[in-house]
Amino acid sequence: MKNFPELTVMLTHNDRTVENAREIFEQCKNSKAKFWGFKEEPLPLDEMKKLFARMKEFGKTTFLEVVAYSEKEGLDGAKIAAACKCDFLMGTKFFDSINDFCRDNGINYMPFVGKVFDRPSILEGTLEEMLDEARQCLAKGVFGVDLLGYRYTGDASALNKNFVAALNAPVCIAGSVNSFERLKEVKEISPHSFTIGGAFFENKFGGTFAEQIDKVCDFMSE
């Protein structure tokens, strides 16, 4: 049986966690998505802990994506992930200190690759540069990488396809998967996973939040 890319539902819009994230999860907790997460801002840590714990109660695999580019901010994000008992830390630029912290705390680390900046994030760089960076990270023991493919300033579709094909490791296509056309591309290249956040809030797939999640899951598994 062929594995298909897993949808990671992000309770985020414009790269920030929505204030009513808990309420939305409660409405969608029985939907078909197994992977759930949100960003490191702006919810208080106590609320984040409670929401991640609630996700775990329903058997979800949990992700914190940290949109930060300095070592200190990235390490602070990793500490939040540990405090929340997250399964995965996504984002941050790779630093040995963050990698070591994740390994010591049993967190799967998927750092950004490429030249990433701003919030919402923008991605620049060449395919070769990103592959080289990814391989260096993998050699140091990361689980996989976070590719902001549809935030790329060049040919996003070509980048995603060629990057996933060339890298024998888990890749999450994160950000701006906002149409069935892009879902079809993701399905065809078959990365480990992909994120959708803002597109659900903007009703890009039609229906309630939970209905959109199930539509996407069904589309990917067909």
Description:
With 222 residues, this protein is of the alpha/beta class. The chain has one domain: Aldolase class I (TIM Barrel, Alpha-Beta Barrel). It has nine helices and twelve strands. The chain has helices spanning 21-28, 45-57, 71-83, 96-104, 127-139, 156-166, 180-189, 198-201, 209-221, and strands spanning 6-10, 12-13, 16-17, 35-39, 61-66, 88-91, 108-110, 115-117, 122-124, 145-147, 171-173, 193-196. A hairpin with a 4-residue loop joins strand 8 and strand 9. Helix 6 packs parallel to helix 7 (180-189). The protein is globular, with a radius of gyration of 16 Å. The termini are close together. The mean pLDDT is 97.
Topology at a glance:
Layout: E1 6-10, E2 12-13, E3 16-17, H1 21-28, E4 35-39, H2 45-57, E5 61-66, H3 71-83, E6 88-91, H4 96-104, E7 108-110, E8 115-117, E9 122-124, H5 127-139, E10 145-147, H6 156-166, E11 171-173, H7 180-189, E12 193-196, H8 198-201, H9 209-221
Parallel strand pairs: 1-4, 1-12, 4-5, 5-6, 6-7, 10-11, 11-12
Antiparallel strand pairs: 2-3, 8-9
